[in-house]
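ugh ok fine here u go
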Amino acid sequence: MSIYDIPVRALDGSPASLGDHRDQAMLIVNVASRCGLTPQYAGLEALHERYAARGFTVVGMPCNQFGGQEPGTGDDIAEFCSTTYGVTFPMLEKADVNGDDRHPLYEVLTTNADADGEAGDIQWNFEKFLVAPGGDVVARFRPRTEPESDEVVAAIEGVLPR
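structure:
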């Protein structure tokens, strides 16, 4: 199954589609508003702005599974992201990324290994998956890897369509 075929919803609950980004590179990230890693939103937004014209987008999926660090509603999350970090990249509806209720998108993403060859459950908020145009997951970065780190930037630049 292609990630583009997996049903997703926008943060406001309306239907959305990753297929809208089929010709772009995407960095899909599980996010949270009350986490020690929350300042990564700034780096994610900077990447989104830096590479958007070259066919790249960040896609955030809020998750409350790690320490209850994303307790808010979709409206709460949208307001926080907009006013605190100026987030303009697409945000999906809050969902589980591990366990029995894992979102189908994360059923696919978690089969991909990180640089150490480890696949499986999401470790914490802000785990990042780089998806090349066409839908192949080409890299997985663990939560403490900063969005603007050399390894993430090099991976993004390696799959930009233009």
